[in-house]
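Try it yourself: sequence plus magnesium ion, in.
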Amino acid sequence: MSAGNSARFRSPVKKQWLRVGEEPLWEFAARRVLAEFEFAKTIVTATPAEARIVRAISDYEVAEGGETREESLRNALTIVESEWVLVADAARALTPIEVIARVLAEKGAADSIAPALKVVDTIVTEDGEAADREKLRRVQTPQLSRAAALREALAAKSGFSDETTLIAAFGGKVKYVEGDELAGKLTYGGEIAPEAPSGAALIGQGFDAHAFEAGKPLRLCGVNVPSDFGLKAHSDGDAAIHALIDAILGAAGLGDIGTLFPDSDQTYKGIDSAELLARTVEMITRFGFKVLGADITIIAEKPHLEPHKTLMRKNLARLLALRYERVNVKATTTEKMGFTGRGEGIAAQAIAVLGYHN
Ligand code: MG
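Structure, out:
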């Protein structure tokens, strides 16, 4: 289960995309379990926006997540074919293998089996009435359930945050085995000290070109450049930012600008490319990447770009939240050769360096 929105999680990185080395948490969690036990099928739930990336990274089947964990589970169950299903949370990535083994060993003993812990804190109601903590348990995951029982219960009832309570409320038999504090759920950030993310530098490059269009404002690196010609495009035509976005996406292994912001989509008509860059940076941040630096070359016979380079650098550094010297903007001509040389348009190349961060 990895389709949450990390609403309570205090980090710019989404919980399931925290990096353990280079692996996002969901991949780390799945790989750990699969190294020890064999399953007929592995299904990862992911938000619709992330499903494409999860599919690209892994060979697991992907079920699109819904608004709630329950809805995501319902979607995942449509592709479960086995009699039993083990439901595990990416947010409990450090669950000891012995806990999972204890759950799996009880297969057949109940309709749903889960790890649980006794309560050590005093539990009270709002009015200060003490609960009998001897009778209370903190339920953890993974939970092993009969797939048919789970489907039936989910079709009839809703509002449960785990499978055992759902199945028990539907009249099924549940069983608890000894849980472990290490199976705790990463909820707010800071509960577990995740292994430091990899210090690897990821490099991506991008290229873009647009033809001149008379009477349109010319924008490069998000800066208005005085010119009789702008650049013909679905957006504002900022070829330098488009090349930079492709370089960033390339370094993150997240595809290209055309996939992310298709020009068949009317919402991007005439859009400020600085806004597309902001959205790209926001997305890669949530997936556990950060931009460390960028170098851009603008190839144009006209207009003369030299007087605008400093402002372009400053603007890109601001958009990327980087120091000035981590961004460079260069301008060159092609000595009258080719389409840029003939003054038909402008091309741009970019290289971006990214790192992992949590
Ligand atoms: Mg473009």
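One thing you can check immediately is this: The longest helix spans residues 239-252.
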